[in-house]
C-alpha cells in the first residue's frame, strides 16, 4: 500500500506543478502611473493577487482554455479581458477613471442646483422657506442668488438683464404657463405654488439644456417629491390666514394635499398701508400630488387651483381722485408625468399639462376679461450607452388659446390668438474622464402662428481643475415668442432671439462653495413699436436688439462658524437694449448695475431657536426725468432692505415663527410718475413710487402630527 501511494503521488504532483500557468502584467492609469493594490483575479476561481507598488502582478493558475481576467480598483472602472489563459502574460492594463465617482466633473455653467440629491447644491429645499426675506416664496429665496435683479414692486424673477417674461417655470419637466398670481402696479406678486411639495430645484440663469425652450434668459425647474417618508398632517395658523396639509401613504402609492387661505383685511385694519383698499387681497388655493408605482415606473399627477380678488384705489398724479382698480382671478393647473427604466439602459418619460386662467380686471370705467387655455405635451427617451456616453432626445407640443374682451363706455374690442409650437430636441452627454465632460445639443421649433422654423444649438463644457474645483463653459441660442400682450394685437412678428456665452469657476469642499461666473447675452429680433401703449392700430416690428453682460459671485459656508450657515452673492450687470417703445438703446428701467445679498441663519440650542438675517442692496434703477433732456437718463436712489426672522421650537412638533421684512423701515423708491402735462412754468410735476408698505410683519404657529412623532415644519420654514 505504501508503494501504491508513493507511486500515485509521483504521478500526480509533477502534473500539478508543471501544469500551472503564470498570469502576469502591470496595471497603470491613463497617465501611465502604476496602480498599487489593484485586485486581479480570474472570474469563477480562487486564483488571483493584488498589484505591487510598481503596478506589477503575477500569480499561477491551473485553469486552462478561455478565461476572464478581471482587474478592479476603487474610483476606476473594472477592466475585463477574455482570452486563452496561456496568452495572459506580460499584460499591460490601463484602468479608466470611474466617471460615476462623486469627484467626477459636472456641467455647472449658468445653473444653480437646490436639492439633497444634487452632487453640488447651492441651496437646499429648506432654504426656500427659511430665508428671512422670502416669506415662504421660492421666487423670494432665488432673488438672493447672483444673476437676479431686485425689482421689489414686481415680485417675479428678472435674470441677467432680461425682463420677467424671459424666465419660464417647469414642474416635473412640464411647462407652467401662468406661474404668478396677477396683481397691479406697485403691489408685488408671488409664485402660485407651495414649496412644501418640492424637493429639488434647478435655477438656470443661462446656457440651459436643449430640452427646454421658449425662454430668452432663464428656466426654473421644480421637481415634486417622488416618495414621502411618512404619513403626516401639517397645520398652520398665521396672522394673514391659515394652511392645512396632509400626506397619506400606501404600499405603492401616496397622496399629498395642501390647502391655504389668505386674507389681508385684518392685517391692513391694524397696519394700514398707502393704498385705499375697498377689498383687501384675498386668496384660497389648493394643491395635490398623487404618486403611483407601476412596475419599474412612477406615475405622478399634480394639480393646483387658486382664486384671488381685491379692489383698491391707487394714488395717481394725473387723477386727483386716484385710479380705481379691481381684479378677480381663477387659475387651474394640472400635469401628469410617467417615467420608467426600460431594458438595455433606456429610460422613458412622458408628460403633459393643462392650464386654465380666467382674469377679470377693472380700471376706472374699463372692464377687461382674459381667458387662457394652454397645454404642453412631452415625450422623451434617454439611452445610457455607457458610463461615458448618454443620449437624450424627444419631442413636445405647446398649445395656447388666448381671448380678451375689452369694454369701456365708448369702445369695445375682442382680441385673441391661437398659437401652436412644435419642437424636437436631442442632447448628448460625453464624459471623457473624471476631469473632462461635454454636453452637445440642438433644438428645433416650428411656430404655426408665424409659420417660422428656428434652430437652437447648445453646448456646455466642463474641466476639473482640482479635486474640489472645476471650470465650465457654455454657449447657446434661445428663441421665445412675444408675450400675450403683443400677440393679441398682431401675428406679423417673429420669435425673439438671444445668444448666451458663459464661463464659470466653481469650488466646493468642506461644506463651502464658491462660484464665479462671467456672461454675455446678445439680443436680436426684439419686438418694438412706436406707441406709448400698443393697441390694434400699432405698427409692430422685430427691429429691437441689445446686450447684457456681467459678473456673478457666490459664496456659501456652513462650516467655519459654529451653528451658523451663511451665503453672500453679488452681481454686476451692464445692459442696454432698444425694444418696445424705446427711441434709443438704453438700460431698461428694471435693471440695476449692482446687486448684493447677505443671508445668515443661526441655530441657538439653549433657546431652541433659529434666527435668520437677510440683507439686500441694489443700486439705483433708470427712469426718465421729463424735466431734463434724454431718455432713461436718471437713476433712483439705491434699494436697501434688512429682514429678520425667528423660529422657536415650542415642542418637538410645534413651532412659533415670526418675521419682519425691511425691519429698519428704509424709505425705498421704485421710480417716479410724472404728470401728463407741464405746469405754467413748463415743469412736469412728479410723485415717488413707494412700496405700499415699508414693512411687513408675519406671525405663524405651525403644528405637525406625524408617524414618528418627531417631524416638524422647521424644515419647511
Report the radius of gyration as a whole number of Å.
Answer: 31 Å
Low-confidence stretches: 3-18, 114-121
Describe the sheet with the most strands: 22 strands, antiparallel, barrel
Helical stretch tally: 5
Class by SSE composition: mainly beta
How many distinct beta strands? 38
Shape assignment: globular
Helix content: under 10%
Mean pLDDT metric: 87
Strand content: over 45%
Distance between the termini: 87 Å
Give a brief rundown of this model:
It contains five helices and 38 strands. The strands form six sheets. It has a 22-stranded antiparallel barrel.
Descriptive key words:
5 helices, mainly beta, single chain, 22-stranded antiparallel barrel, disordered N terminus, 5% helix
Walk me through this protein's architecture:
By secondary structure, the chain is mostly beta strands. The protein is built from five helices and 38 strands. It has a 22-stranded antiparallel β-barrel. A hairpin with a 4-residue loop joins strand 23 (436-447) and strand 24 (452-466). The longest helix is centred in the N-terminal third of the chain and has 17 residues, at 2-18.
Amino acid at each position: 500500500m505504501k508503494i501504491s501511494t508513493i507511486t500515485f503521488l509521483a504521478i500526480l504532483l509533477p502534473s500539478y506543478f508543471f501544469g500551472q500557468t503564470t498570469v502576469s502584467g502591470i496595471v497603470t492609469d491613463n497617465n501611465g502611473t502604476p496602480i498599487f493594490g489593484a485586485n486581479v483575479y480570474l472570474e469563477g476561481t480562487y486564483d488571483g493577487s493584488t498589484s505591487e507598488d510598481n503596478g506589477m502582478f503575477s500569480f499561477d493558475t491551473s485553469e486552462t482554455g478561455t478565461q476572464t481576467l478581471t482587474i478592479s480598483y476603487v474610483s476606476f472602472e473594472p477592466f475585463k479581458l477574455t482570452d486563452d489563459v496561456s496568452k495572459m502574460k506580460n499584460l499591460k492594463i490601463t484602468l479608466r477613471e470611474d466617471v460615476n465617482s462623486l469627484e467626477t466633473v459636472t456641467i455647472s455653467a449658468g445653473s444653480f442646483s437646490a436639492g439633497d440629491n444634487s452632487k453640488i447644491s447651492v441651496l437646499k429645499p429648506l432654504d426656500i422657506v427659511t430665508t428671512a426675506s422670502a416669506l415662504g416664496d421660492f421666487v423670494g429665496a432665488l432673488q438672493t442668488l447672483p444673476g437676479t435683479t431686485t425689482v421689489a414692486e414686481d415680485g417675479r424673477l428678472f435674470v441677467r438683464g432680461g425682463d420677467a417674461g424671459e424666465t419660464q417655470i417647469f414642474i416635473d419637466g412640464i411647462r407652467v404657463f401662468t406661474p404668478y398670481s396677477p396683481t397691479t402696479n406697485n403691489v408685488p406678486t408671488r409664485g402660485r405654488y407651495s414649496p412644501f411639495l418640492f424637493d429639488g430645484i434647478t435655477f438656470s440663469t443661462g446656457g440651459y439644456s436643449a430640452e427646454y425652450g421658449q425662454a430668452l434668459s432663464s428656466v426654473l425647474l421644480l421637481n415634486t417629491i417622488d416618495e414621502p417618508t411618512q404619513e403626516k398632517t401639517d397645520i398652520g395658523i398665521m396672522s394673514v390666514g391659515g394652511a392645512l396639509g396632509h400626506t397619506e401613504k400606501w404600499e405603492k402609492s401616496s397622496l399629498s394635499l395642501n390647502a391655504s387661505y389668505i386674507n389681508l383685511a385684518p392685517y391692513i385694519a391694524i397696519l394700514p398701508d398707502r393704498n385705499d383698499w375697498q377689498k383687501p387681497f384675498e386668496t384660497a388655493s389648493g394643491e395635490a400630488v398623487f404618486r403611483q408605482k407601476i412596475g419599474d415606473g412612477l406615475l405622478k399627477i399634480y394639480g393646483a387651483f387658486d382664486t384671488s380678488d381685491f379692489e383698491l384705489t391707487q394714488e395717481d398724479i394725473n387723477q386727483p381722485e386716484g385710479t380705481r382698480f379691481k381684479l378677480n382671478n381663477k387659475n387651474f393647473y394640472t400635469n401628469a408625468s410617467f417615467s420608467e427604466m426600460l431594458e438595455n439602459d433606456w429610460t422613458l418619460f412622458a408628460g403633459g399639462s393643462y392650464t386654465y386662467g380666467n382674469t377679470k380686471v377693472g380700471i376706472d370705467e374699463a372692464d377687461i376679461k382674459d381667458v387662457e387655455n394652454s397645454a404642453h405635451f412631452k415625450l422623451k427617451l434617454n439611452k445610457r450607452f455607457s458610463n461615458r456616453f448618454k443620449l437624450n432626445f424627444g419631442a413636445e407640443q405647446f398649445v395656447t388659446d388666448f381671448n380678451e374682451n375689452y369694454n369701456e363706455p365708448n369702445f369695445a374690442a375682442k382680441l385673441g390668438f391661437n398659437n401652436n409650437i412644435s419642437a424636437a430636441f436631442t442632447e448628448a452627454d460625453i464624459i471623457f474622464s473624471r476631469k473632462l465632460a461635454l454636453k452637445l445639443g440642438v433644438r428645433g421649433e416650428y411656430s404655426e402662428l408665424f409659420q417660422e422654423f428656428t434652430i437652437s444649438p447648445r453646448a456646455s463644457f466642463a474641466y476639473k481643475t482640482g479635486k474640489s474645483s472645476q471650470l465650465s463653459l457654455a454657449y447657446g441660442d434661445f428663441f421665445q415668442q412675444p408675450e400675450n400682450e403683443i400677440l393679441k394685437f398682431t401675428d406679423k412678428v417673429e420669435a425673439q432671439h438671444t445668444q448666451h456665452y458663459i464661463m464659470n469657476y466653481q469650488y466646493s469642499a468642506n461644506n463651502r462653495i464658491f462660484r464665479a461666473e462671467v456672461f454675455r447675452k446678445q439680443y436680436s429680433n426684439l419686438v418694438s413699436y412706436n406707441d406709448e401703449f400698443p393697441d390694434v392700430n400699432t405698427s409692430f416690428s422685430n427691429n429691437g436688439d441689445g446686450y447684457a453682460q456681467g459678473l456673478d459671485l457666490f459664496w456659501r459656508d456652513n462650516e467655519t462658524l459654529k451653528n451658523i450657515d451663511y451665503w453672500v452673492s453679488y452681481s454686476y450687470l451692464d445692459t442696454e437694449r432698444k425694444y418696445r417703445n424705446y427711441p434709443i438703446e438704453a438700460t431698461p428701467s428694471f435693471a440695476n448695475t449692482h446687486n448684493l445679498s447677505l443671508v445668515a441663519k443661526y441655530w441657538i440650542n439653549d433657546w431652541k431657536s433659529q434666527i435668520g438675517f437677510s440683507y439686500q442692496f441694489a443700486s439705483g434703477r433708470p427712469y426718465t426725468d421729463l424735466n431734463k433732456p434724454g431718455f432713461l437718463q436718471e437713476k433712483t436712489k439705491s434699494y436697501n432692505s434688512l429682514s429678520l426672522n425667528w423660529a422657536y421650537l415650542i415642542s418637538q412638533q410645534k413651532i412659533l415663527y415670526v418675521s419682519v421684512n425691511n425691519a429698519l423701515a428704509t424709505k425705498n423708491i421704485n421710480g417716479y410718475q410724472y404728470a401728463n402735462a407741464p405746469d405754467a412754468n413748463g415743469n412736469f410735476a412728479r410723485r415717488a413710487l413707494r412700496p405700499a408698505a415699508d414693512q411687513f410683519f408675519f406671525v405663524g404657529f405651525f403644528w405637525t402630527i406625524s408617524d414618528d412623532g418627531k417631524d416638524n415644519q422647521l424644515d419647511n420654514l
